[in-house]
Amino acid sequence: MDYFDDEPQTPRGPKIRSDDTWAEVRRAWEAGETGASLARRYDVGLANLWRRRASEGWSRRKPVDPRPEPVEGWDRHAEAALARFEHQRLETRALAEQLCKAMTGGSLEGTPIWHLAFVLHWRAEHLGEAVIAADRAWVAGRGLDLSLWHEDGTLLPLWWIDEVVLSAHREAWREDHDLPPGVAPHVPVPVKRDGVR
Question: Cα(100)–Cα(53) distance, rounded to whole angstroms?
Fold first, then answer.
């Protein structure tokens, strides 16, 4: 004989989970746990989980491949990196010292050619007419192109002087950057006097 429960069944309401619970679900899903596993563990609807994932932009972090050991081994790699760092630090300090001297009115002698445009602009803006005249004479005395200035005596734009200097010394730049003759001959692009590359 079958027995039936005569008590009326009350419909279940929606499952309400706290923000903290959903934050835990999200962290676990983003760490790689499956949606089905989380739905069972936290008693949340799988469809609701997918809706939240889409609306809140959940994303899984891609596993990071371990970095392969360098051919020379980690010890020699680290020692070489430290040597490069120390060399670059010394070079940076020497450059800073030279630029500081030039930018406070000292001689332009020793200013690296790649920074000449920047220093000329700085001096013109901060040190006055006498320094500007001295800079024009210094540039002329070294046979450099006086087309760095407009007819009214103001400097051409910094980017333009940088381009002119780079173009005038492109072979030195290529040598500094280990570009053998004949490879990538268009780098850097030469600038003509009329401003055309």
Answer: 55
Q: Residue 149: phi, psi to the nearest 5?
A: -115, 150
Q: 123 vs 155, 175, 188, CA distance in Å?
A: 11, 30, 27
For 34-52, the pLDDT digits (tens) are 888 888 888 888 888 888 8
pTM for the structure as a whole = 0.58
